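Hi team,

Filling in the usual template for the complex we talked about on Friday. All components are listed, including any nucleic acid strands or ligand strings, so the model treats them as one assembly.

SUBMITTER: L.P.
PURPOSE: interface mapping
COMPONENTS: three
RESIDUES: 678
SEQUENCES:
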Amino acid sequence: MYTQALDAHTAEAALLDESALEQRFLARVDAEEKIEPKDWMPVRYRNTLIRQISQHAHSEIVGMLPEGNWITRAPTLKRKSILIAKVQDEGGHGAYLYSAAETLGVSRDQLVEQLLSGKAKYSSIFNYPTPTWADVGAIGWLVDGAAIMNQIPLCRCSYGPYARAMVRVCREESFHQRQGYDLMLHLAQGTADQKRMAQEALNRWWWPALMMFGPSDANSTHTGDSQRWKIKRFSNDELRQKFVDFTVPQAKFLDLAVPDPLLRWNEAKQQHEFGPIDWNEFDQVLKGNGPCNAERIAARRNAHAAGAWVREAASAYAAKHSGS
Amino acid sequence: MNAAVPQAGSEALFRYVLRLGDLSLVLGQRLSEWVGHSPALEEDLGLANIALDLIGQARLLLSYAGEIEGRGRDEDKLAFLREQGAYFNAILAEQPNGDFGQTIVRQVLIDAFQLELYERLAASSDERLAAIAAKSVKEVRYHLRYSSDWLIRLGDGTAESHARAQAALDLLWPYTVELFTEDELDRLMCDNGIAPRLHEVHSAWSARLDAILAESTLKRPADRPHAWHGKRGQHSEHLGYILAEMQYLQRTYPDARW
Amino acid sequence: MEDKRQWPLYEVFVRARGGLDHKHVGSLHASDARMAIDHARDLYTRRQEGVSIWVVPSKAIVASDPTETDSLFEPARDKIYRHPTFYEIPDEVKTL
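RESULT (copied from the run log):
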């Protein structure tokens, strides 16, 4: 549907002045109009969206693995149910996002191929291991918390399908953060072993969570265009600051220590100051040298390869019975 | 408490309800291993859904069992702190996932069983069981739709999928005998109007399977006698590993609440 | 790692409650229509958001051309006599 429209378009557009079209496009974006799949859009806008939406989708899919790791070992039936539902939601989010990306003329198969071949990026955070049950709580509290911060502004992004997918995602995401925090609360108020488990998890996940917001504004390459096109509505540093200010009191309530000796409240600025991020670690993880990069991609590759005969069987059956 | 069974019989009812609950629990646990590793993203969601339903059934049934027993064991104490010989699931549920075909075959065999069983249990003289069954029947109807649709696609798909599905069917079929073998406990439950005659459940199950297998172009394996008694706590080697994983946190931190 | 055959794309429409229209909620991949319904149920109605699902192969959808938006939709704008508020009816006349 959408790819057919694309072909019809290029002929039409060639007749008009390219820069006039771009001006009209920018005016629509400035007026907070939504751009829909068949509308004219600059090639760079289309490509930026494909990259951003697919990266987001890949992150959800890979994100199923670190928490999925604890489903069979969840300590109560209720927690097991909650965790399955959460991971299921993440898969669903991936599906909504691949769906949104496909409206831009790319197929899900192409996107999956990019992920499995290592060409596509996904959020750095999912390359960290979940060695204990407390890590499940830390992910829900911190990682989903950071994701929500990023995702709420995206509900108003200029591209219709992406915005609508994000509205759906955001509705489901707040359950994710709450269950994580609830998990941490039980640990923090539990036995000495549980409390230690919780503190160690916070120590492991705090800095990677801050890195989720991306490089500092000075070093961020894509931000300018993305903000002009209302794909990205706040800068990395703005969102990171907001996250710290929201989360530090939550840690205080848990009576857990944020692993940052330089963290302090700045009364004048009414915000927290925090220590420097290790961008070298961030770069290494993005390059594929994080603790679990290889494992995560291997898991996805194995699932995809092991499932090929199943997908083929379904297609073969459909072909045999089409029209029946 | 249930009036149909005299006090002396509550141990029997306790065991019977555990048979049902443990079947759902172990099968749900097996299915949940697939999350994040399925052949397609949409199948991750589908299998997770079924796992959630099954664990939900297990929670209702184990809670009820704990009440019958009257010793203060709730759903979690029963799920996580029994030793192997005190689980009463039929051993079909604990068989490994294998490939997607094997998982689907195991699912069809148990879904069809649960559907026929729950449909009849909805008329149980035990009100609580009847209510749980009535609720679960709707879920299981969907489970069977999902699993049988897949079995048909695999059986009537490619040569490879047909071969894998047939191999899985041949492997798992012998474990179905245990589902329908009526023992003293089954007879006691039936005599008290609590459970249906297993023979009836078997006929209905058999007819369903015949229809599904025919459409899948798969051959129904011959029945073979077997020596498995999971329903009496005698399990295959697999349950030990399942429990070791499932029970780890509760066993390691005995005084903790989660 | 190419699939022999990709599962086609389906558009999904869900009726949230009796009395409402079916609304487009997104798309998904399935090998056939029956699978598409099952997938739609699992993907779009986990939180009781639906009583009815329609799935349509994406390639069956015919859409209006956005470059013709002006000619398709603009002329309706100045035919305000189609709207009941255009007409001033004397207050004495009831039930109009």
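MY TAKE: The first helix of chain C runs from residue 33 to 44. The interface with chain A takes residues 1-7, 9, 11, 25-29, 31-32, 35, 43, 46-47, 58-59, 61, 63, 65-67 of chain C (CB under 8 Å).

Thanks, L.
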